[in-house]
Amino acid sequence: MKKTVQIFSMLLIALTVMVSCKKDTDPADRDFFVGTYNGTVSYRDGETTINSSDGKVTVSKVGESYNFYFGSGIPDITGVKFEKSGDNTYVSIGSGLTGITIDASTLKMLVSKDGKTWTADCTR
Asked: Can you tell me the distance from the alpha carbon of 63 to that of 20, in angstroms, rounded to the nearest whole number?
């Protein structure tokens, strides 16, 4: 009986160690880049030009797509998809919405679509 309790105790300890040592989740998989970035933003559409050195961009996730909400009267960009590029950095993919690089602390953007251009050089 004593031998059975020892074996059971060792199995319980081994199981605890295995569960606590499982592979860590990549921080980018947890959407750490969702939030607000501050910095220089601009927008141009042929008639209107908006520049702001103290602008902000708020990033949110809906399903598998990301939305970029600008302050300063700049139109939003929605429905952006990303693929991983390096450690915890993502780059936008898809037609017309390429040119966005984002990670947990930096947002860089140069997007041209339908004669409109958005730029952002922001941090948080």
From this structure: 30
pLDDT at 28: 42
SS3 31: coil
Q: What is each CA distance from 85 to 28, 47, 60, 75, 100, in whole angstroms?
A: 11, 35, 20, 27, 12
Look up residue 15 and give its two tokens.
């199981």
Cα 107 from Cα 55, distance rounded (Å):
12
| CA 106 – CA 39 distance, rounded (Å) | 10
Structural tokens at position 70: 């600008």
| Domains of the chain and CATH, by start | 27-123 (2.40.128)
Reported as a single tens digit per residue, the pLDDT across 7-19 is 766 666 766 655 5
